[in-house]
Amino acid sequence: MLATVDALLPLSLLEAVRDVDTPEGVLEAEFVDELRNKRLGLSDTVYTQIKRYTESVRRNQRTPQDEAIALAKLIGRRPDAEAVLRAAGRFLAREAYMTVSPVTRGVLKVMPSMISRPLAFRKTRRIAHRYLNGNVRRVGQFILLEVPRSVTLGVAPGSTGCSFYESTLRELLRLLVGTTGSVEHTRCEGRGEGSCEWRADWRGADRTRGE
């Protein structure tokens, strides 16, 4: 059976490329075409693909995982690959967070941790499963995210590709519980350690809430 991912994942990669490649300020019209030729994120190809994935997200459709891997490899060849992957992770987390109902988001903000924390954990687990093909569990004071098949594995030197999932987890917990402690890449498939795993310190929110 062909492996798939939620269309939001490849969309997040392309949105990050477009965002990073879009210059700040207003440009003279004669420079626009020249920039499109030099910057991938401003190309017509990326614009068309963003439209396609946006429509797939609207329809709750999935896409072949190999497409997302190909996009990640393309990003991995850039000198700013880590910055783009981290931006993509934040984009995915913010868009996934907006799928949580406004009522639930309100509860997470105002209720004490004994009520909001289990709810935040369930939402984190659901979002990780849907958008990252990942599994989330809690071990003591930590939240563990395991991704059996990372889309960004080995797309750039070292552990650069892993920054996508780290950034997603960090931003998602920030949105759900207000803040988080450190996020550490504890296991990596690229090092022959089985699936990739990230560990987030769950105590950061307690300190913020004054507990």
What's the short version?
The protein is an alpha+beta fold and 211 residues long. It has 9 helices and 6 strands; from the N terminus they run βαααβααααββαββα.
List the helices and strands and how they pair.
Blueprint: E1 4-6, H1 8-21, H2 29-38, H3 44-58, E2 62-64, H4 65-76, H5 81-97, H6 102-110, H7 113-132, E3 135-139, E4 142-147, H8 163-177, E5 183-187, E6 196-201, H9 203-208
Antiparallel strand pairs: 1-2, 3-4, 4-6, 5-6
Plain-language structure description:
- The chain is an alpha+beta fold.
- It has one domain (4-208): Muramoyl-pentapeptide Carboxypeptidase, domain 2 (2-Layer Sandwich), CATH 3.30.1380.
- 56% of the residues lie in helices and 13% in strands.
- The strands form two sheets. A four-stranded antiparallel sheet has the order 3-4-6-5. Strands 1-2 form a two-stranded antiparallel sheet.
- Helix 1 packs antiparallel against helix 3 (44-58), helix 1 (8-21) packs parallel to helix 4 and helix 7 (113-132) packs antiparallel against helix 8.
- It is globular and about 50 Å long.
- The model is unreliable at 207-211 (pLDDT under 50).
